[in-house]
Specification:
The strands form 2 sheets. An 8-stranded mixed sheet has the order 6-3-7-2-8-1-10-9, sandwiched between helices. Strands 4-5 form a two-stranded antiparallel sheet. Strand 9 and strand 10 form a beta hairpin. It is 32% helix and 22% strand. Bound molecules: 3,4-dihydroxybenzoic acid and fe (iii) ion (FE).
C-alpha cells in the first residue's frame, strides 16, 4: 500500500531560483531561509520517499486567465519547466508517476472532485522551487504528481474545499496497492502581496497562528473565505490554500519534524514546515 511519510509545506519565492543558480545559499540575505532545509535534507536521506504529490498553484505558465481550472492533476510521464520571466533557469525534466496519477484522478473524480486531467503540463516555480530546495543537485530521486489549485483567479476554492481535496487524496493514496512512500508538498505563502496599495503587506501574527494550527487545529483556517484570507494574508498569501490541501492528506495528528519562518524573502514571509504523521 502507498503511504504518506511526510508533508512539506514551503514558500516558493521566484528569487530563490536565481539565488540557487548563483549559489547564494550562504549569503546573509538568503542563509536564514536555505538553512531551514538542512535538517530536511537529512530527513530525506533517511526516509527516501518514492513519489511526490505536489499541491501548488500555477502563476500563468500552464494555465492563464482564459482557462483556469479550480483543480487540475497531471497524468504525464514527465513534466517540464519553462522560462517564466523571473530569471530562473529551467530545471531538469521531472519524472511523472503516470499510473499513480491516473489512479488518483479516477479516485478524486469518483469522490466528487472535478479534476481537470492534464496529459501534458508545464510546471512553474511553485512546483519546481520546492523540488530544488529539497534536492539541490536536481537529480530528482522521486516520481512526481502535480496537483494544481487555483489561487489566482477569483473566486478561489474555499479553504474547506482544499482541505477536503487533501482528505480525498489521502484516501486515494491509502488505496493504491503499490508499496510506495509518498511525500506531499504544499507550495506557497505565507503572507505576501505583490501589487496594489497593499504591496509588501505581511501579517506575521496570522502566519504564526496558521503554522501552529497545522498541528493543533488543522482546519482552523477553513473558517475564512477566500476574500477573508486575502485581507489577512495578502493577495498572494492566499496560496496557503495549498498548505491546507497538503495537510488534509493526513487524517490524524502530525508532529513538526522541522519548521522555519523568516521575514522577508523578496516580498514574502517565507516559511517551511515538515510534518510527519504520528
Ligand atoms: C513572490 C512570491 C510568490 O509566491 C510568487 O509566486 C512570486 C513572487 C515574491 O515575494 O517576490
Ligand atoms: Fe506564488
Amino acid at each position: 500500500m502507498a503511504k504518506i511519510v511526510g508533508i512539506l509545506n514551503t514558500s516558493h519565492v521566484p528569487a530563490l531560483g536565481k539565488a540557487i543558480h548563483l549559489n547564494l545559499q550562504e549569503d546573509p540575505y538568503w542563509k536564514p531561509f536555505f538553512d531551514g532545509f538542512k535538517p530536511i535534507h537529512d530527513w530525506l536521506a533517511r526516509v527516501k520517499p518514492d513519489v511526490v504529490i505536489s499541491c501548488y498553484n500555477d502563476h500563468g505558465l500552464n494555465f492563464f486567465l482564459d482557462k483556469q481550472p479550480t483543480f487540475a492533476i497531471g497524468t504525464a510521464n514527465e513534466y517540464r519547466s519553462e522560462d517564466e520571466g523571473w530569471g530562473i533557469p529551467t530545471m531538469p525534466t521531472f519524472p511523472g508517476a503516470a499510473d499513480f496519477s491516473w489512479h488518483l484522478r479516477d479516485a478524486l473524480v469518483r469522490d466528487d472532485f472535478d479534476m481537470v486531467t492534464c496529459q501534458e503540463m508545464l510546471v512553474d516555480h511553485a512546483f519546481t522551487l520546492p523540488m530544488a530546495l529539497l534536492w539541490p543537485d536536481q537529480k530528482w530521486p522521486v516520481r512526481c504528481i502535480p496537483v494544481c489549485v487555483n489561487t489566482v483567479l477569483f473566486p478561489l476554492p474555499s479553504g474547506r474545499r482544499c482541505y477536503r481535496l487533501g482528505e480525498a487524496i489521502g484516501r486515494a493514496v491509502a488505496a493504491y496497492p503499490e508499496d510506495l512512500k509518498v511525500l506531499v508538498i504544499g507550495s506557497g505563502g505565507l503572507s505576501h502581496q505583490l501589487e496594489g496599495e497593499r504591496a509588501g503587506f505581511i501579517n506575521k501574527e496570522f502566519d504564526l497562528q496558521f503554522m501552529d494550527s497545522m498541528v493543533t487545529d488543522p482546519q482552523w483556517a477553513t473558517q475564512f473565505s477566500d476574500v477573508d484570507l486575502v485581507e489577512k494574508t495578502g493577495n498572494e498569501g492566499v496560496e496557503l490554500l495549498n498548505w491546507l490541501a497538503a495537510r488534509g492528506t493526513v487524517p490524524g495528528p502530525v508532529k513538526v519534524t522541522h519548521s522555519n519562518f523568516h521575514i522577508p524573502i523578496s516580498n514574502t514571509a517565507a516559511a517551511t514546515m515538515l510534518l510527519e504523521p504520528v
